[in-house]
Each structure stands twice: as C-alpha cells, then as structure tokens.
C-alpha cells in the first residue's frame, strides 16, 4: 500500500497530539505539519509529531488526502479560503474548532465540489484534565486515549467521508460520537465556552472594585484556579470569536448561569440557610459525580467486536480502497 499524506495545520496541543498518536503508523502515513509560528512547527517536528514541516501553506495541502485544521478559531475561515483551490479531488478536511455550524457554512461556501468537510471535536484523556500546560508543550501521544471525538458533518456530506473521520478517531485511541452541528455547538457552549467566560466574568467583577488593591493580596488558590483561563491574550481572542459565532447557544447558557446566581443571591439575601446549603450541596455532589464518571470514562468502553486493523482503517481513511465510480451519492 502506497503511503498517504495527512497534513496538520496548527501544531499546538491538539494538532501535535494527533500527529504523535499516528507515530506508530508512519510506514503508511506521511505526516506533514504547518504552523504560523515556525518555532512551534520545529518543536513539533523535534517531538516526532510530524515527519516534515512545510512552511508554505499551499504546498502543505496540495497532495494531502486528509487535512486537519487544528487552528485558532479566527484563522479557520481565512485558511479554508487560502487552501480551497489547492485541495485535490476527494480530500477530506477535518476542523477541530469549537464552532461547528459556522465552520461548516464556510466550508460549503469556499470548498470546491469533490472536497469534503467534517467537524472533528476531540475531548481529552482524563489523565490530563488538570494539566494547565498550553500549546505544543502540552502535546501527548495518548491525549485522546480513553476519550471521545465528536463528529458533525453537513447533511449532504458523502457518508464515506464521515466514516473516514470516524476511523481516524478510532486510530488515535478515541471513540467517535456522531452528532449534528446544532447539537454539538450547544454542548460546546455550555461545557467549553461557558467555563472560560465565567472565569473572565469573575475577573471583571472583582478587579474594578474599590477593594481590589487589598483584594489582590488576599486572592489565593481558589481565585487563581477559577480564573486561569483568562490569563492568555491568544485565549481571550479565540474565546471572543467562538462566543460570537455561537451566540444563540451561549446566550441561552449564560441565562442559565445568571438564573442560578440569582437563586443563590436571593437565598443569601433572605438569610435562608436551608436553601443556601441545599444549593451548595447540590453543586458539590454533582461535581463529585461528574468527576468520578469522567475519570472512569465508562462511556468509552469498546464493544466485543474486534476493531479493524490499522491498515484497514487507513486504507478506508484516505480513500485507498477502490471506489465504484458508477455509484451514486449515498448509495452502498
């Protein structure tokens, strides 16, 4: 079987980890990497996440069978526009950004016929949930082990392209979960974007208060832990873009958060000790239950059916199996 090309655009934690997870299959896959920051790209190459770094974006994708966009949200549309005419017929584009509907719409507008697009949203191995390292330095070969990867494709997407994405998810140690863009954006709004916006809200609610000059001295572990997402300039920029592209879902979950805080405020204001303790106990028990479930990740358990070999998955993954040219779209 001739080698196929996987191009990863963006070599931060997600992109570099995908490359590392495929390291065992370099006899079948050539991993090409590209990053706007050359130092990051070279670091990923040194780690063994890619076989070669290609600085020129057009050259990086022109021979690719599969292109993974592991980019900051504000770079997704521009990158799709740049690479659209370079993608070969049959190429599959996987986007890891937290804005499925917008990315799918851009792909529909920009990609030529015969090129396929699937949202590819990974969760991480629970062993790394508390790891605060960022970027390529946080890349791990097993980052997607014992985790889920959510897939969402536009309605007219070739089923084979969706299967290719699912096979890749399996190959890197994860379990694919099929969703649609609306559902996925709702999940991301509540469980990815909202915690980060809450951190920013806590910062803004305290630093402009008259007591901040003294408050900054007493702020400790709990303050630092809750607000650490707000410390990076790039994170702030990306968060704003993701929030605006998913505004309908985000407004809904922000309202849920505001309602919860109003209930707590009213209970405290009325000196209702029972309600306050009940509110806090519910949060504590719910968090402990979630944490236990997330660490075990029982939902990732595999079936008794044997998985296909990596050769079988890669063969299907990159269109290497012979295709019946007379077969119509969606026909088996």
Automatic annotation (TrEMBL):
Residues 311-332 are annotated as: Disordered. Residues 323-332 have a biased composition (Basic residues). Keywords: Oxidoreductase. The keyword Oxidoreductase applies. Residues 4-298 form the Prephenate/arogenate dehydrogenase domain. It comes from the Bacteria. The keyword Oxidoreductase applies. One of its GO terms (biological process) is tyrosine biosynthetic process. InterPro entries: 6-PGluconate_DH-like_C_sf (IPR008927), NAD(P)-bd_dom_sf (IPR036291), PDH_N (IPR046826), Preph/Arog_dehydrog (IPR050812), Prephen_DH (IPR003099). One of its GO terms (molecular function) is prephenate dehydrogenase (NADP+) activity. PANTHER family: PREPHENATE DEHYDROGENASE, PREPHENATE DEHYDROGENASE [NADP(+)]. Belongs to the prephenate/arogenate dehydrogenase family. This is Prephenate dehydrogenase. It comes from Levilinea saccharolytica. The lineage of its organism: Bacteria, Bacillati, Chloroflexota, Anaerolineae, Anaerolineales.
